[in-house]
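Suppose you are handed only two things: the residues of a chain and a line of SMILES describing fe (ii) ion. What would the bound structure be? This form records exactly that question and the answer produced for it, so the two can be stored side by side and reused later without any lookup.

QUESTION INPUTS
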Amino acid sequence: MDKHFKYASTDKMSDLICGNYNLLLVMSRFGLSLGFGDQTVEQVCDQQGVHTGTFLAVVNFMEDECCIREDYQEKISVEALIDYLRQAHSYFLDFNLPAIRRKLIDAIDCSKDDIAFLILKFYDEYVNEVRAHMEYENQVVFQYVDALLKGRDTQGYNIRIFAARHNQIETKLTELKNIIVKYYPAKTNNNLLNSVLFDIYSCEKDLSSHCRVEDYIFVPLMLEFEKKTEENARE
Ligand SMILES: [Fe+2]
Ligand SMILES: [Fe+2]
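ANSWER OUTPUT
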């Protein structure tokens, strides 16, 4: 079955990274560390206590980001996927977004330019939105999944409620990028500003694929899981 996908459990882990360096981010969110020599995906995952099926589902999804085949769903662990998504939230909120903010402050002169001040204000508002989005997922959605897994009361919540309100969060970042590109007054040395723009571009892409993992892997997986849980309860 694996041969339909680009990456299989028998592939060398190092080949995955060389093929697509964005997978480095996926690896670290799964808690995988580097230094795996010539070991295969399965060997590295087994050794580091990572769920191979879930890891492969996510890395293969990253290739075209359109959908996940139904037969592959059985290979995903709900716990491992939730863990992965939580790690991604912590990467954005505790590492990447604050790092971009620091770089932004270095790149634009907030003491003189009104536009610089506006850019920073816009950025901070944006980060607050992302925080609210991700905290809702951590505190409401994943808590619900946790309760479902443990057979506790789910208080009427279900994954359709999440799917209906789940929105894209990278749109405002696209706007910010446009404001900087179109309106920030040119200086002689733009290296820092270009560098922060590159970071914003890649953060935007990273956030969009994070949301797609939630829409196209997490939601369908949970719909199936809810169905099974209901069937088991009826038996
Ligand atoms: Fe999320
Ligand atoms: Fe989300």
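WHAT STANDS OUT: The chain has two domains: 2-73, 78-234. Residues 85, 89, 134, 137, 210, 214 surround fe (ii) ion (ligand 1) (CB under 6 Å).
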